[in-house]
Specification:
Oligomer: single chain
Structural class: alpha+beta
Largest sheet: 8 strands, mixed
Distance between the termini: 28 Å
Strand content: 15-25%
Helix content: 25-40%
């Protein structure tokens, strides 16, 4: 077994897989190391959206996308927190990277019907053409690597993201064609993040690229100021002749790092289907130990509200859901704080995040944490809750009551105010317009919001008992990462690149996108900067 390779990659999410595939295709000998027993990292639980402006798959769109539009949108998203050089590298090279990986056998398709998040609001935003995803792939195409990827337990992955939107959203899964669903399951068809990972693994397997699981890295090896490899907990040393790519993902399953970098009360940090146990911030620690800058994007909007349903059987897995892109996008739901007040447009999670971070100096508290999802029986008759078929029994751990007052008492919410809030909200439903927070006026969503004909489609009364409520916790995106340049090189505390060390994916600070959030941009950035990192290694070696 060789201990010397050209390129060594840590992590098997899409950023790591892309780095390994790029290195192999460009004539290098890569080795990918993963500490978990299975592959895929945080990419597995994602929707698998890849956001690329001016991509070749949208070449027939009219009017055509332009670089100026993409740059204008990126600058608007960044909110003044962009690294201009890194942003322009992403804009210019993401289309190249997409074509490159497609030529390697990763099949992509354009997603129709999915707008930019801020379409109609931001300069440069477009109605369609920038979001792509991997085509469905059968697990059988991976041969003896099929079981190396563990299927996400909580979400259906046998569909494309486009189909999921067109079929009514993930909270309308009961209405999907049961025969088609059964047929796809029998063929082990994989879509979204699961499918994206499977495509890359198929390409790596066909090329004979070594991918080793269960490899715990203890430290980076540095010689004369250059990263030359890694030391494993087994005592072995792996040498990287050209460079080492950190692609270890975020730190969502590390309570200490979540607290240090997110600093929101009760931030969800337990391992789950949404946050694999392997996401403990290893790359941040490894890079920081040798002087790498850990950079936090202040006020990052890459945070969502989630809830967890405990396992109902011994040894079972808990159910974890991002309510902000499922229940809160649908009628017959509202979001309130403990005072019983709404505080944002429930259907637009980017608008919720700043309100979660708001601190009241008079009360000396975060007024909108904890937050609560409130819904009624109408919701259950029409949509899925906790990824269960519509009409299913609500898990016993979810609070319920025949009156809003009783529900409020059980949740610790101001009862009188909750009744007033629901009454006011029901009035907005009748009027077809949310005068307080303009719910439903944004065009981007992944869940079904089909409301009554002629009305705002995301509005629905909350009038039918029993009423239900569950506490929601902040979760999701990593605000901090290793500061990296336009080539993906990790930056030292003395503001110079660390020779031989690169970062891509969630382990890298998202300075190419700054404060804002656009679905698909993180996976696209991971693929792009992995591609650029390998290209830079080769250029430096000439």
């Amino acid at each position: 077994m060789s201990a010397t390779w050209d390129v060594v990659i840590l992590g098997s999410g899409v950023a790591g897989l892309a780095a390994a595939l790029a290195a192999q295709e460009l004539g290098q000998r890569p080795l990918l190391l993963e500490k978990a027993s299975t592959l895929g990292g945080g990419t597995l639980s994602s929707y698998g959206l890849v956001w690329v402006g001016q991509n070749h798959l949208a070449k027939d769109d009219m009017p055509p996308d332009t670089r100026d539009e993409v740059v204008a949108y990126m600058r608007w998203l960044g909110g003044g927190s962009l690294d201009e050089a890194r942003m322009t590298a992403f804009v210019d090279c993401a289309p190249q990277a997409l074509r490159f990986f497609e030529r390697c056998g990763v099949r992509f398709r354009l997603i129709r019907g999915l707008t930019d998040h801020y379409y109609g609001t931001a300069p440069g935003a477009r109605a369609t053409g920038r979001s792509v995803e991997a085509e469905l792939i059968s697990g059988h195409d991976l041969g003896d690597w099929r079981e190396r990827v563990a299927a996400p337990e909580d979400t259906p992955c046998y569909v494309t993201a486009e189909e999921q939107v067109a079929w009514g959203g993930i909270n309308n899964v009961s209405c999907w064609d049961p025969d088609l669903v059964s047929e796809r399951r029998s063929r082990d068809m994989r879509g979204k993040g699961f499918g994206l990972v499977s495509h890359f693994l198929k390409a790596l397997r066909e090329r004979g690229v070594p991918v080793w699981c269960g490899q715990q890295v203890e430290r980076l090896v540095v010689e004369d100021g250059r990263v030359t490899g890694v030391a494993l907990s087994s005592g072995a040393t792996i040498t990287a002749r050209k460079g080492l790519v950190l692609a270890t993902g975020g730190y969502n399953a590390n309570p200490e790092l979540c607290w240090e970098f997110e600093q929101l009360p009760d931030f969800a940090q337990e391992a789950s289907a949404l946050m694999p146990a392997s996401l403990t911030g290893d790359g941040l620690v490894l890079g920081a130990e040798i002087g790498g800058v850990v950079h936090k994007v202040e006020n990052s909007l890459r945070v969502m509200l989630s809830y967890t349903i405990p396992a109902e059987t011994p040894g079972g897995a808990p159910t974890c859901v991002y309510a902000g892109i499922v229940e809160l996008c649908s009628p017959h739901t509202i979001l309130v704080n403990k005072r019983g007040l709404r505080f944002a447009d429930e259907t637009f999670f980017q608008g919720i995040v700043p309100e979660l971070r708001r601190f009241d100096p008079g009360r000396h508290e975060y007024p909108n944490l904890p937050a609560y999802l409130i819904f009624d029986s109408q919701y259950l008759r029409r949509f899925s809750f906790a990824n269960r078929p519509k009409g299913s029994a609500v898990p016993a751990t979810v609070a319920r009551a025949d009156t809003l007052e009783d529900l409020a008492h059980r949740l610790g919410i101001d009862a009188a105010q909750l009744v007033k809030t629901v009454s006011r909200f029901n009035g907005f439903v009748a009027a077809g317009e949310d005068a307080d927070f303009h719910r439903g006026e944004h065009r981007w969503r992944l869940a079904s919001s089909a409301g009554a004909p002629g009305n705002n489609s995301s509005l629905g009364t909350i009038t039918a008992p029993p009423f239900y409520g569950i506490e929601l916790r902040p979760a999701g995106g990593s605000s901090a990462g290793l500061l990296s340049d336009a080539h993906g090189r990790v930056i030292h505390q003395r503001r110079r690149p660390i020779p031989g060390l690169y970062a891509a994916g969630n382990v890298a600070a998202a300075t190419e996108q700054g404060i804002g959030y656009q679905a698909g941009m993180q996976l696209a950035a991971g693929m792009t900067f992995s591609y650029l990192a390998v290209r830079h290694m080769l250029d430096c070696g000439r």
